[in-house]
Design goal:
The protein is built from no helices and 4 strands. It is mainly beta. The two termini are 31 Å apart.
């Protein structure tokens, strides 16, 4: 989990700190699975910014 203070550079709006949580699983050298959740809180005038990420990568 990452927790980083974000600079509050906008004079017209308050910005919150953000955090993310991710996990990656590599069962063999040809396959990787990554899942993540990010919480940006308030960014400028947009409230409760959140998102999920899922990646499945294969190679041969």
């Amino acid at each position: 989990m990452s927790l980083w203070p974000k600079p509050d550079n906008l004079s017209f709006a308050r910005e919150d700190d953000w955090w993310d949580l991710f996990i990656a699983w590599v069962p063999d050298r040809r396959l990787a699975v990554t899942a993540a959740f990010v919480n940006l809180d308030d960014v400028a005038t947009l409230k409760d910014q959140q998102g999920v990420y899922l990646s499945l990568q294969g190679g041969f």
